[in-house]
Amino acid sequence: MQWVNILVGLALIFFGRKLFWLFVGGVGFIVGFQIASNALLGQPVWIILLIAVGAGLLGIIAAIFLQRIVVGIAGFFAGGYFLSNLMVTMLHENHEAVRWLLFVAGGLFGAILTILLLNPALIILSSLAGATAVSEHVPLDPQARELLFIMLAVAGILVQSGQYVRDRKPRPPQRTE
After folding, report:
1. Residues with Cβ < 8 Å from 21, sequence gap 6 or more?
2. Rounded to an integer, what distance in angstroms lies between the CA atom of residue 38 and that of residue 50?
3. d(Cα 37, Cα 49) in Å, to the nearest integer?
4. d(CA 143, CA 166)
5. Where are the domains of the chain?
């Protein structure tokens, strides 16, 4: 099932801002998958996948109808997911209490950031969440995984920033003849 997280992560890296419902659904899927995997140890993979897909779909439906609120919630989960996994990746430690504390701290920062600075926050958080999802599911040694994370996050920020600038450029009026 690692390939699913990698595909969702790549979609977040390159299209998280442009398709913000994808950002919300992707983060819902990734966090749902991680929580279900930890809570339902020993259960068949299809049950965990079903829960993750359900969380992602709920995120997408809510994003369509409650855009600003849902983006803040997704910002919370993306920031929390990134910061709690950063501890495991960088420090090679996995203390559950510290991980939850970092999840809440990163989540609050991510929520505030997305509410105040919607597009730049979506670019940064979707790139970080996507890079985290990909790098933690690729079988590499820790240093190569860290390098992959940095390269993917930077690539996502650059690609999405370029898309954002192109989308914001005023287009010359079309002549009708």
Report:
1. 59, 60, 63, 64
2. 15
3. 9
4. 35
5. 2-166
Tens digits of residue pLDDT in 102-149 = 889 988 988 888 788 878 888 888 898 889 889 888 888 888 988 999
Per-residue pLDDT tens over the stretch 41-94: 888 888 888 888 888 888 888 777 777 787 788 788 888 888 887 777 676 667
Q: Which two tokens stand for residue 54?
A: 């359900």
The DSSP line for 55-111 is HHHHHHHHHHHSHHHHHHHHHHHHHHHHHHHHHHHHH----HHHHHHHHHHHHHHHH
Burial of 101 (0-12, 13-18, 19+ CB in 10 A): middle
